[in-house]
Amino acid sequence: MAEGGAPAEHVVGYADILLDACATGRRLTRDELESRRAQGTRAAEAGLTLRGLVREQLAVAREIQPLLPARAFGPLLAAVEQAVDAFAEGYEQAQQQAVRQEEAARREFVDDLLYGGSDLGRLAERAERFGLRLSQAHAVAVADGPEPYGDGYPVARGIEQTVLARFGNRKILLTTKDGRLICVAPGDQPDVLEFFAKQAYAATDGGRVGIGRSHHGAGGVVHSYEEALNALDLAERMGLEGPVLYAADLLVYPVLTRDRQAMADLVESVLGPLHQARGGAQPLIDTLTAYFDSGCVATEAARRLSLSVRALTYRLERIHRLTGADPADPPHRYTLQTAVIGARLLGWPGAGDVR
């Protein structure tokens, strides 16, 4: 009998194969080995455990041993070894095929989920299989490191094991996409994404993590994913500091670039005169960036630029003379700071100049 009391189909004909082989001491034929492989495949597909299956095959060998002469003990062991090896081969091949099919199904689901190009109703049904309930709100975190990561990579596997060990009872999806690490978690559980971000930062040797806002439905996952990617892109273009970037904290930047031409006009109009400076506009743009990022505190800005306060003050005065806008004057400061942000977003000055 097989596990659960079902008929032991995987040992049907097995005793006859052993008896026939032992009668002459021959090796098992190709057809006999293939039949054992096929039985192993069917047993794996039925969800039976290999350990119990091998034990039952050894039990069959013990049952027929008294029917054989003493000299047949050696051939019996050889026949059992061949039969069990073929059976295990078929079993393992079936398991590997099942794993490949599961991985392919998971990858297809992840692609559809993050690209939003599939039927949403069908996508929601498939999501249950992978532990997500798309009727709820979800948020997405995306980790970018110094090298690409894929499913099964040590880094990805280690983070997945650590996160699931901590939050195994939560509805979480951990995967990779385009070389990045992805975590999809319920929107009301920000601690999951924060923990993921911490683990990803450590495992990727200082990589960055973008975290999108929480949104409802299957389309909400795509929206949050895109926000996380945009946060990483903004951090790269703007030189933003910090290992974790929240899309909710960066909403001003998409607003500023919504009308790209208007922003380009502002940058050229306000900062264009800086091209006249010795050394070009970039050093003065860097000066304004440090000055604004330091809360307009000259000593702190000078420290960030490795300048003396006097040298920094000279640069600010030079900016005032060239642009007509005083960085220390509140109304002028707002215009200059907006233009500097726009310059960083547009890659100005340089190849990204828009005239």
UniProtKB/TrEMBL annotation:
Keywords: Coiled coil. Residues 116-234 form the CdaR GGDEF-like domain. Residues 77-108 form a coiled coil. Transmembrane segments: none annotated. Residues 284-340 form the PucR C-terminal helix-turn-helix domain. Pfam families: GGDEF_2 (PF17853), HTH_30 (PF13556). PANTHER family: CARBOHYDRATE DIACID REGULATOR, DNA-BINDING TRANSCRIPTIONAL ACTIVATOR ADER. Belongs to the CdaR family. This is PucR family transcriptional regulator.
